[in-house]
Design goal:
By secondary structure, this protein is an alpha+beta fold. The chain has one domain. 45% of the residues lie in helices and 15% in strands. The chain has 4 helices and 2 strands, in the order E-E-H-H-H-H. Strands 1-2 form a two-stranded antiparallel ribbon. The longest helix is centred in the C-terminal third of the chain and has 9 residues, at 43-51.
């Protein structure tokens, strides 16, 4: 599913293709823990869904590993 989000960190808008269903997104929006309803996603993908922050943005602001 293509997900388009505005970054809470930079305000930039990005689109990411993420293997997630509408049902999973609905469950999360209704309060389920994202890691419980979307265990197949990476932490970067979950962060993007929650905040719109991409891995390159995160690394540019806070530094990489």
């Amino acid at each position: 599913m293509l997900i388009r989000k505005r970054s809470d960190l930079t305000g930039n808008t990005s689109t990411m293709n993420i293997e997630v269903t509408a049902e999973q997104l609905t469950s999360w929006r209704w309060g389920a823990l994202i890691q419980k309803v979307m265990p197949n996603l990476t932490s970067e993908e979950r962060e993007f869904i929650m905040t719109g922050i991409t891995a390159p943005e995160w690394n540019s602001v806070f530094g990489g590993d």
